[in-house]
Amino acid sequence: MKSRPVVLVIDDEESIRIGCHQTLSDEGYEVDLAENGELGIEKIKEKSYDLIFLDLKMPGMDGMEVLNVVREIDPGAGIVVITGYATIESAVAAMKIGATDFLTKPFTDDTLLTVAKRAIDGKSLAMENTCLRLELDERSGPTGIIGISAAIRQVTEIVRKVAPSSSTVLIQGETGVGKELVARAIHQHSPRNEKPFVVVDCGALVETLFESELFGHVKGAFTGAIETKHGKFELADGGTIFFDEVANIGPQIQVKLLRAIQEREITKVGSNQTASVDVRIIAATNKDLAEEMREGRFKDDLFYRLSVIPIHVPPLRQRRDDIPILTKYFIEKYGTKRKKNVTGISDEALASLERYDWPGNVRELENAIERAVVMADGEIIQTDDLLYYGLSVQSQTEPAEGGHLAKTEMREIVKALERFDGNKSKAAEFLGINRKTLREKIQKYGIGLK
Predict the structure, then answer these.
(1) pLDDT band at residue 397 using 50, 70 and 90 as cut-offs
(2) Range of 175's domain?
(3) Which residue among 20, 77, 134, 295 is buried most deeply as judged by most CB within 10 Å?
(4) Cα–Cα dist 331/334, whole Å
(5) 262, 285, 314: which is the final residue of a domain?
(6) Do the Cβ atoms of 322 and 148 come closer than 8 Å?
(7) Per the omega criterion (within 30 degrees of 0), is the bond before 359 cis?
(8) The whole model's pTM is what?
(9) Is residue 66 part of a domain?
(10) Helix or strand or coil: residue 192?
(11) What is the pLDDT of residues 73-108, one digit of tens each?
């Protein structure tokens, strides 16, 4: 945006043109005038305007015609329509085809300046948002998936190709690699992006209630069904339904899910009437679903229905090139969120992150950075700031097992276990590591709860 906004006033009334010119010029605007639509369009072809005041009722080419032409010549121009016919219909019609605001004749100088400032500020905000989106695209790619490694670029390319279709997608990868992020990227770049993205956590639902959660139930279908309930399929109608950790569902539900996918029809629990649903299916799992099928734990028909387009998201240890850019992203995120002036990470601390194998993947890295941001005393994260996470124990300068770093890590693990009454899952989440890593460290240090 220029420091001095440039404005064009198109109005067939000379008094309006002169009045607008004087008022706006006195406030520092650069103002051009046109007495009809044809002259206004000529000026717009020759010069870029931040804001255009346009009379709707003019002889010859009226304001609505001019508005349509301006939108083709300069889609980004702010347009305020002026009307002496104070009807909602004319204002609404103009707003629908691109006007940003309107003025009703007669208007005061203060009203003119207020509307002008609002329109200019609105355009500035739109430009800032565009720049922000471009900056994010440069850093995270067109899908919003952050990374520069060859492995993650391959995932991004598959997402770009598959998003426009309605094909079923199966996303496989270890816990914490970002499978849901990939699923959301597919939805957001699909024609369904204005419809719901509904997540079904297959690992959290009780199997006896799973059918009701998926398909809904009618009032009185079972004890406690005091009202009719819509299921996940109905809620996702027109959009995308995402089955997270789909390998966890039992055999009976697998059969019913397969039927719903094949027929795109569902039946509520307690009802005999079917209802059609239009949903895209995306599933994710941290297990080898083909192996689960071979072992008889997952129906082969359902496996083939789900894996029309398979996507493998590699673990972080196989794409270490992404660790610096992910680290930078999380430092910015949690520096803002936690209101800490932490702006970077030392070379030694970053090297420690790059050497670590990340059994919890990106989720574990994110937890580690959040904790480091909270613990950091200065603007730069140092190796010691990772002590409470335990990463620095993994560094090349690791001391003997009974050294200061190891003792600090052991003390933090004990405190976390005591805080959550021995619940290893909650303690691991608090420490920013996965349960397996916590168990190994408990064994390593011989930690026992009273």
Answers:
(1) very low
(2) 150-314
(3) 20
(4) 5
(5) 314
(6) yes
(7) no
(8) 0.59
(9) yes
(10) coil
(11) 877 778 998 887 555 567 667 777 778 888 888 889
